[in-house]
Design goal:
75 residues; alpha+beta; three-stranded antiparallel β-sheet; 3 strands; 37% strand
Length: 75
């Protein structure tokens, strides 16, 4: 039997941002706003987003639209 790993860190926001292909990374204010919106949707208390990480771009096509997808999470 394998024991499950348990993470005792507090919940954090994770967001996906999609921008037109080649537009460059999202602005810091947009990332922070998206994280704050996700925190609210998760029922987490308001907090200043002091640090976050950003991964991407990941080139994807959605319904014929070429976009770059970025993933951001608070740390």
């Amino acid at each position: 039997m394998v024991a499950a790993l348990v993470n005792h860190l507090s919940p954090r926001a994770l967001v996906v941002l999609r921008l037109p292909r080649g537009a460059g990374p999202p602005a810091e204010r947009d990332v922070r706003a998206a994280i704050e919106t996700d925190r609210s949707a998760l029922g987490l208390p308001q907090a200043d987003v002091t640090e976050y990480r950003l991964a991407g771009p990941y080139a994807i096509d959605i319904a014929g639209e070429a976009v770059d997808e970025y993933v951001a999470w608070e740390v």
